[in-house]
Automatic annotation (TrEMBL):
This is Major facilitator superfamily (MFS) profile domain-containing protein. It comes from the Eukaryota. It comes from Capsella rubella. PROSITE patterns: MFS, SUGAR_TRANSPORT_1, SUGAR_TRANSPORT_2. Keywords: Membrane, Symport, Transmembrane, Transmembrane helix, Transport.
Amino acid sequence: MEGGIIHGGEDESAFRECFSLTWKNPYVLRLAFSAGIGGLLFGYDTGVISGALLYIRDDFKSVDKNTWLQEMIVSMAVAGAIVGAAIGGWANDRFGRRSAILMADFLFLLGAIIMAAAPNPSLLVVGRVFVGLGVGMASMTAPLYISEASPAKIRGALVSTNGFLITGGQFLSYLINLAFTDVTGTWRWMLGIAGVPALLQFILMFTLPESPRWLYRKGREEEANAILRRIYSAEDVEQEIHALKDSVESEILEEGSSEKINMIKLCKAKTVRRGLIAGVGLQVFQQFVGINTVMYYSPTIFQLAGFASNRTALLLSLVTAGLNAFGSIISIYFIDRIGRKKLLIISLFGVIISLGILTGVFYEVTTHAPAISSLETQRFSNLTCPDYKPAMTSNAWDCMTCLKASSPSCGYCSSPNGKEQPGECWISDDTVKDLCHNENRLWYTRGCPSNFGWFALVGLGLYIIFFSPGMGTVPWIVNSEIYPLRFRGVCGGIAATANWISNLIVAQSFLSLTEAIGTSWTFLIFGLISVIALLFVVVCVPETKGMPMEEIEKMLERRSMEFKFWKKRSKPLEKQNQSA
């Protein structure tokens, strides 16, 4: 059957067999890791902007004063990724998986050069769009290429390497951010160095073949057979070639053409429609449970929780990025042992609990903000926040009230007697910031001093640990294997586009939401969406662990949804093979 041969005991041996490829068949690992650099690019761009944004605000005052401009710099890459993912689906079916990855690398490299040289926010946004186009194409092509070049038994583990490289890219980006904090042109180095892995993948992909399944679709059977013989063992390869040939021929017989895809029939086909419901739903919920608010804005979130220093915020963000990479390693180990669906459900349970903790932490941070000292604030009357002057005799003002002042914007200088003691509310500019620092006090413009800040690190850490192994990697794995071969590129593009549209909505609205309703209410909304996501997974997402791709199609046709996900699924194909 298409996708590979199933043997007994794969639950226990899949991870071990994947690891043994290092010496048994390094060619398969080379395919997986070379294509997975697309995941590294995806992760690096997601993580690097969170730190670069702190210094972009310092260089461009227009960015510092406008929340919408900060959101635009972040989200324009996402907007480009929406277009890139949509084009990527078409390009994958038309030109092949390998060619689509090469196009993505070129766009990413071009964008990195433009960002590094940007003299103003407008050109920076243009560079972000080009990077987004490349990331969008790579995000749906890399797992597809890996999936189609992997034996079924270890397909989940190998596609999970793409997830590991995404999180590895995020961790690398925070290391790069920290490395360049004291270098001239800080954010330019952070953004420009992203072109290096794109150039590396561009070179590596020239030495690798096209997807064997795509080659079969295009009638290039000899090339496909030669690649399959390098991927599969001698005892399995002939049956795999025969199964793949039968699958392609049956599709051609059904449709009358191996080239033309009827979009109306795409929507009407039961297997495709059900696959899209599961695949697109997972991609949408992956974003709406809030992951990229953490990855795009984690230093800002730590500042909202009461950590004033840019460097401290970046160091704490490095912890969350490291946990994210660790979680993806857990996914590689468990994905083919306990299955996709069970991993998703465990992941979402943890995410819901973590978001509840974050909601409580930020509620406490907001309601226990230190007061404003009228006496201290008036020490320099020309520096006093204009909005505060009419309220000097009132005790209603605290740090949070001060930071919400907007005519002009104001900042909070902590008390020398302890950060929880009343401090000053002054105009926010570099001179006042330096004055506060010269008195060995902390200057706050994003969040207020709090004894609860460390609990935010705990909440974010738990969120990442639970999110990464399940909701972080499984949606990409499911989308790489759940669609019929004929529609895999197009459907993968639709799902990836849905992911990026959801990503754009979250990235463009997070800072505005925190300003409008507060950080605690924002995380509460993400928590409620996570509950809905959990119900969706239980009802709509089938288990595909260890199943040949053709059997996945048959399962969708029968609508054999696994509500009792904890029970071991029977292996009808294996039994059929044994009886034959």
